[in-house]
Design brief:
Helices cover 41% and strands 19% of the residues. By secondary structure, it is an alpha/beta fold.
Length: 390
C-alpha cells in the first residue's frame, strides 16, 4: 500500500511538471529550453524529457532561430482552437484563437436586439473550433451561462447560452474580464502583478488583478466600472441607477451630446463642417478626423470625459494602489490622446504615494482584446487540465 501511494505521488509530480512546461510554452511562444529550465527551476534533463514527449505527440514544435537551430518552442497551431465572441452593446466581434497564440478575426456585426438572431453566426464559426469562449459587456452568471443584466441591450437580460444551440462547450465571462485577461497574459499588463484594464465603448467594464489573480467578486460581478457613481449631472442610466460613469464617458454619450449641439446650431468647427450640420451624418470616422484636426468643441467634450474617468479612477487607485492601468475599447481607437490626458488628470486627484509609480497606458489590442480574451479562457482551461503523456 505504501508503494502505491509513492507511485501516485510520482505520477502527480510528473503531471505537474508536464503542465508547468506546457503552460510556459503557451504563454511565451518562442521560448528556449534553457529559459524554461531557469524560470521553472527544473533540470535541463527534465525539461528535455517532457519537451521530447510533447514533440512526439504533436503538441509542440521547435522552430528555427536566426542561426538555423531548432530551439524556439511553440504549441502546434492546430492542437487546439477556441472561438472567441465579444458581444458589446453596439458591435459583436468573432475570431479564432489557436494554440500557437495566433488569432484570426472572422466577423464583425451589429449586435442585434434579439439574441437569437446572433446564434446562427456563432454556430457557423464554431464548426472549426474545439470550444467557444463568449464575453459580454454585461453582468453574467458564468456557471449558469446566463446574462443577468445587459445595460445597453436590455432585451438580452436573462438570456441563457445553454439554450442557444451551440454544440461545442461554452465558457462565459464579461468583456472586461476577457480583455483584462488578454492584456495580462500577452499585452500591456504582462509585467505587473497588481493591475487593471478598462474597456470603454458604448459601455464601460474593467478587469482587475491583485497579486496576479483576477478579482471576480462575491457574485462574479466585479469590474462594473461604468456603474461607479460619477455625478448627478449624468442623469438616469440604463441600468436603472442615476449618475453612472457610463452616462458621461462613453463614445455613444459623446456622440449624443455633440449631435444635440449640432441640432441646436451650436457647433461651428470641423465636425459640423464634415457632417454638413446634419447630426445623422456623424460617424466614428468623422469624429476621429475632427479630433485629428483638433476641433475645439469636440476636444472640450473629451476633456469632460477625461475628468469624469479620472475622478472615478482616483478612488480605485487610492484604495487598491495598482501598479498599472491600461485602457482599450472604441474610445481609445477614436481618441488615443485620452491615455496621456488621464496620466496628468489622475495625478492631480490621487495621493502622491499611490500615483508615484503608477503606469497608465493603452492596451495592446484596443478593439480585439475582449474577443481574444474570450477564447483565451477555454484555451487555458484545456492546457491546465490536459492529461498528456507522463
Amino acid at each position: 500500500m505504501h508503494f502505491f501511494y509513492i507511485l501516485i505521488s510520482m505520477r502527480n509530480f510528473a503531471r505537474s511538471n508536464y503542465l508547468a512546461l506546457l503552460k510556459e510554452i503557451f504563454l511565451n511562444p518562442g521560448i528556449m529550453r534553457y529559459e524554461m529550465s531557469e524560470r521553472l527551476d527544473m533540470s535541463s534533463a527534465t525539461v528535455t524529457k517532457y519537451v521530447e514527449m510533447m514533440i512526439r505527440d504533436g503538441i509542440i514544435r521547435e522552430a528555427d532561430n536566426h542561426k538555423g537551430r531548432k530551439v524556439a518552442l511553440t504549441l502546434t497551431k492546430d492542437w487546439y482552437a477556441a472561438l472567441g465572441v465579444d458581444i458589446g452593446g453596439y458591435q459583436t466581434r468573432i475570431g479564432m484563437f489557436y494554440a500557437d497564440g495566433s488569432f484570426t478575426k472572422l466577423d464583425e456585426v451589429r449586435t442585434p436586439g434579439d439574441p437569437r438572431e446572433l446564434m446562427p453566426l456563432i454556430q457557423k464559426y464554431e464548426r472549426n473550433a474545439d470550444t467557444v469562449g463568449i464575453a459580454v459587456t454585461a453582468v453574467v452568471d458564468a456557471a449558469e451561462q446566463r446574462i443577468f443584466i445587459f445595460a445597453n441591450q436590455r432585451t438580452w437580460d436573462g438570456f441563457s447560452f445553454r439554450t442557444a444551440g451551440i454544440s461545442k462547450p461554452v465558457f462565459l465571462t464579461t468583456s472586461g474580464n476577457a480583455a483584462a485577461g488578454y492584456e495580462k497574459r500577452f499585452g500591456t499588463l504582462k509585467p505587473y502583478e497588481n493591475c487593471m484594464h478598462v474597456m470603454i465603448g458604448t459601455g464601460i467594464q474593467a478587469g482587475l488583478f491583485i497579486n496576479n489573480t483576477l478579482v471576480e467578486g462575491a457574485n462574479h460581478a466585479a469590474g462594473e466600472f461604468g456603474h461607479v457613481f460619477s455625478t448627478a449631472e449624468a442623469g438616469p442610466c440604463t441600468c436603472g441607477k442615476v449618475g453612472c460613469l457610463e452616462n458621461i464617458a462613453t463614445i455613444s454619450m459623446v456622440q449624443r451630446r455633440l449631435e444635440k449641439q449640432m441640432r441646436d446650431g451650436n457647433l461651428r468647427g470641423t465636425l459640423a463642417m464634415l457632417c454638413g450640420n446634419d447630426p445623422s451624418k456623424m460617424t466614428i470616422d468623422i469624429l476621429k478626423r475632427s479630433i485629428a484636426e483638433n476641433d475645439p468643441q469636440v476636444m472640450a467634450d473629451f476633456k469632460r470625459v477625461t475628468e469624469a474617468i479620472a475622478a472615478a479612477l482616483s478612488g480605485i487607485v487610492n484604495v487598491l494602489n495598482p501598479e498599472a492601468v491600461s485602457f482599450g475599447g472604441r474610445m481609445i481607437d477614436v481618441y488615443p490622446g485620452l491615455v496621456n490626458d488621464l496620466q496628468q488628470a489622475v495625478r492631480l486627484t490621487v495621493l502622491e504615494s499611490n500615483s508615484k509609480h503608477l503606469t497608465i497606458a493603452a492596451g495592446k489590442e484596443p478593439l480585439l482584446a475582449a474577443c481574444i480574451g474570450a477564447a483565451l479562457i477555454p484555451m487555458e482551461h484545456r492546457i491546465n487540465t490536459f492529461g498528456g503523456t507522463t
